[in-house]
Write a structure and sequence with these properties.
single chain, Porin, 18-stranded antiparallel β-barrel, 6% helix
Length: 465
């Protein structure tokens, strides 16, 4: 126990030193009479904590298609420069252990990472890369010491009527990515600097269970093309491929591939409707099962740049199985969901819900999943901000049989943060991870508490051209 608390106190002492350093450098680097930078050197805003939304008049309309692969946003920031932003991040987490872990009581995990965010713009294309990578050191025998990597990248092209985009999202984490780094930028590629640099990758989460313990990695690649038929109408097609792998035995590795085709029609300046067809194919390593999923959704969207982004969708879902489940090889259900982003006077609100067929998160051979995630932030003083975050996922066997297993996973918490000069931020967060299950085998119902202290520092944007 003494060693654990020595490690914890050493982490806090390290962050205390970091806290003092930016305040000193801020006083040295920003003399009162310093002249403002000329307009040609202006940079888009960088918001490490994500607590504030850029002013509406600084945003351009979100040009993503309603039935496309990415969630709608409040808008986009256009940069006059290509630039990159390196940084560092340190997190110290003290957590209670779940039943069956290698330790009892509380353990401590330290994360040390380097972050890089890159934006390269040309006349008709743009490349965005967000990356985080480093080491994790834990007194929990189950986790031990290791490393983690997170990458989000996108390359887009824009012509008179055509848009072409490629997205890739990769992560290698010591535990489930569901709720990882809640309340901090630890779980986001590049540390969560998203206001100045567009978020890269695609929406969605392959892993929404805490039960699959041990290091795991996933990768999702998507290509999308959009053609503007008229000022109001457009069509889009996409193709995707993804993997979910686990280092430890006892989990289920899976692959997914698929595609979609959608039609969008703009009713008014703010309202759009559409229809989209999705197909996905799920397979499992060393297992004979293969799942085909066909979905048709009617979609409605509303966008007010800088204020509101809403998308609601739903429709039938037809699923087939190569190996019968409970004597069933085909079932018809429903799918649907909603995405909401809303700008508050001194903060923001986000909420996402999705119901449909997923790979099973490494525990089930296919699952019917309901997943909800959301967050709210508010700046209550000039420097202090508060945020709350919540996520819920219910994964149950894909066919309703007498022995159907289900897992309910919840993370909920909140935190506070404040900037330390123009290039650093300190945050303190609490998260509870709760899981219950109807599965007869194993003790997989538990509650884990986490207290995380996080420090991030990055340079000013370094102009490439």
């Amino acid at each position: 126990m003494t060693k654990r608390w020595t490690t914890f106190l050493a982490g806090w002492a390290t962050v205390t030193l970091f806290l003092c350093f930016p305040l000193v450098t801020r006083a040295q680097d920003q003399p009162p009479d310093e002249a403002p930078k000329p307009a040609a050197r202006a940079y888009p805003p960088l918001d490490t904590t994500g607590d504030e939304t850029p002013a509406p008049d600084t945003l351009l309309p979100d040009m993503q298609p309603l039935t496309g692969v990415q969630n709608p946003t409040l808008g986009r920031v256009e940069s006059p420069h290509s630039y990159w932003v390196p940084g560092v991040q340190y997190s110290n987490t003290i957590q209670s252990n779940y039943p069956g872990a290698g330790n009892s009581g509380w353990t401590i995990t330290n994360y040390v990472a380097a972050n890089v965010n890159l934006l390269e713009s040309w006349r008709a294309s743009q490349l965005a890369v967000n990356y985080s990578g480093g080491g994790d050191f834990s007194t929990d025998k189950t986790l031990g010491n290791g490393f983690f990597q997170e990458l989000g990248a996108s390359q887009s092209f824009q012509w008179a009527r055509w848009q072409l985009a490629f997205f890739d999202q990769f992560s290698y984490l010591p535990q489930s990515e569901f709720g990882f780094g809640g309340g901090t930028g630890l779980g986001l590629p590049g540390g969560g600097i998203t206001s100045g640099i567009p978020p890269s990758g695609v929406a969605g989460n392959l892993q929404s269970l805490f039960t699959a313990i041990g290091p795991q990695y996933d990768n999702n690649f998507v290509a999308q093309a959009v053609y503007q038929l008229s000022p109001r109408a457009s069509v889009n097609v996409s193709g995707s491929y993804g993997i979910l792998r686990f280092v430890d035995a006892g989990n289920i590795d899976s692959d997914s591939d698929g595609g979609s085709a959608g039609f969008n029609y703009q009713l008014t300046k703010e309202d759009t409707i559409g229809v989209v067809y999705h197909y996905s194919h799920l397979t499992y390593l060393d297992l004979p099962q293969a799942i085909g999923d066909n979905v048709i959704n009617i979609v409605y969207g509303k966008k007010i740049t800088g204020r509101l982004a809403l998308r609601v969708f739903g429709g039938p879902d037809i699923t087939t199985f190569s190996v019968p489940i409970g004597g069933v090889t085909r079932q018809v259900t429903g799918s649907g969901g909603a995405d909401l982003a809303y700008a508050l006077p001194r903060g923001s609100l986000s909420l996402d819900y999705n119901h449909g067929v997923t790979g099973g998160s490494g525990v089930l051979e296919g699952a019917e999943t309901d997943e909800v995630s959301g967050g709210v932030s508010h700046r209550f003083t000039r420097v202090w901000s508060a945020q709350a975050h919540i996520g819920f996922a219910r994964n149950r066997s894909i066919v309703n049989t007498a022995g159907q297993a289900s897992y309910d996973s919840v993370y909920v918490g909140g935190g506070i943060s404040r900037p330390l000069g123009p290039n650093a931020v300190f945050s303190l967060a609490y998260t509870a991870n709760i899981q219950t299950t109807s599965a007869a085998a194993g003790n997989t119902s538990y509650t884990q508490h986490q207290i995380t202290m996080n420090f991030q520092w990055h340079t000013r944007p370094l102009v490439l051209r």
